[in-house]
Amino acid sequence: MKRVVIVRHAKAVPYGYHDDFHRDLQDRGKKDAKLVGKELHKQEIEADAMISSPAKRALKTARIIAKKIKFNKNDITQMNEIYEGLSTYEFLDIINKLPIEWNTVFFFGHNPGFHLLAGYLLSRYTEDMPTCATIGIDFDENDWKNIKAHSGRMAFRIIPKMLKS
After folding, report:
1. Statement: residue 164 has pLDDT above 90
2. What is the pLDDT of residues 24-39, one digit of tens each?
3. Among 87, 91, 93, 165, whose Cα sits 20 to 30 Å from the Cα of 108?
4. CB of 150 within 8 A of CB of 123?
5. Nearest CA to 10 among 130, 102, 137?
6. Could you tell me the CATH number of the domain that includes residue 33?
7. What is the number of structural domains in the chain?
8. What are the distances in angstroms from CA 109 to CA 35, 73, 141?
């Protein structure tokens, strides 16, 4: 079995788009990422690899979650293409080329691309994807190259709102 975990970055500061790449997380975003990471750890979800947009808000979200699930933050791979925007076909091509020895790969990035990606990988997806939404998608395949569109099933969906009392 292979698993893709799609994580939209946590809540970022709202200032203009003249320097979108360097937008930082709000305090709420940091707290939400910690909550999601804690829940992932509680569910014993581990990562073989983490791949993130290099934008500050995505990378910070990745580092916070990595710490909670005991993944070395220095091993997070940054991929410019995630920030620049990938089509669902291009994203599937990246997934198809992942090393066979990895079973669970986390991707950290942005909407609308990640919402579209979830809909593309799952057989059916009609949920929203708010900030720090985390979706685990399982594939009944032993090799990434065999993963196709709409062949995944949702293993879990975590949004910060679900974890707050």
Report:
1. no
2. 899 999 999 999 999 9
3. 165
4. yes
5. 130
6. 3.40.50.1240
7. 1
8. 18, 16, 24
